[in-house]
């Protein structure tokens, strides 16, 4: 069974601060996705990283996939209240075929609160 | 383009009652997923469809849960009878296919409260 552990579970910061959320596993993933979910809504895809060592930037958000494709991080620069939400990482299995094909493994999420 | 549509958005029922959730995926998306999400946790897959075929229902509690996707488009998830522990948000998601980078698009969910 592939597991993804996210840390920290909760993060409460002031507007303007920087933060990093981590997503770790002992398993290799073919790709990893980051989602943000606001209360009362479904998760919204932010980014997909595919290549080991890959770095993607989305405005103030920087996503990195570990070289071994077992871990990832999300860094937010100068956080704003609009960044508040549940951040989820999700990994796709590295092997094709079988029932695991197409099945994402989700981390338990990081609840981020940015205070004005 | 319309996103994934789910209804109802909220449902409150008494335990032992039946309940059904409906999902209409993004047009052209062959893969449909039903997830259950507890408060502050990540989604847990219940069932995955490729067109009308359920290809992964290993996490679906089959004694009380059932699902169907008759024409390979919209889908219904049913619980009968509901238990207190079924209170959660039920999310539907769709994707072009398992090979398309696994990028899934989620609906807003149905929040179920069992009293």
Mean pLDDT of chain B: 93
Q: Looking at CATH, which topology of chain B would you report?
A: Immunoglobulin-like
Distance between the termini of chain B: 37 Å
Within CATH, the superfamily of chain A carries the name: Immunoglobulins
Strand content of chain B: over 45%
CATH superfamily membership of chain B, which one?
A: Immunoglobulins
Number of DSSP-assigned strands of chain B? 11
Q: What would CATH call the class of chain B? A: Mainly Beta
Helix and strand element order of chain A: EEEEEEEEEEE
Task: Work out the count of structural domains of chain B.
Answer: 1
Which class do the helix and strand fractions of chain B yield?
mainly beta
Low-pLDDT stretches of chain A are none
- The global form of chain B is globular
Amount of beta strand of chain A: over 45%
What report would you give on this structure?
The complex is a heterodimer of chains A (116) and B (115). Chain A is mostly beta strands and 116 residues long. Chain A has one domain: Immunoglobulin-like. In chain A, 0% of the residues lie in helices and 53% in strands. Chain A has no helices and eleven strands. In chain A, the strands form two sheets. In chain A, strands 2, 4, 5, 9, 10 and 11 form a six-stranded mixed β-sheet that branches. A five-stranded antiparallel β-sheet of chain A has the order 1-3-8-7-6, with no helix packed on it. In chain A, a hairpin with a 2-residue loop joins strand 6 and strand 7. The N and C termini of chain A lie far apart (40 Å). Chain B has 115 residues and is mainly β. Chain B has a single domain, classed as Immunoglobulins (Immunoglobulin-like). Chain B has strands spanning 5-7, 10-13, 19-24, 31-37, 44-50, 53-56, 65-68, 75-79, 88-95, 105-106, 110-114. In chain B, strands 2, 4, 5, 6, 9, 10 and 11 form a seven-stranded mixed β-sheet that branches. Chain B has a four-stranded antiparallel β-sheet with strand order 1-3-8-7, with no helix packed on it. In chain B, strand 4 and strand 5 form a beta hairpin. Chain B is globular, with a radius of gyration of 13 Å. Classes of the chains: A mainly beta (116), B mainly beta (115). Chains A and B meet through strand 4, strand 5 and strand 9 of A and strand 5, strand 9 and strand 10 of B.
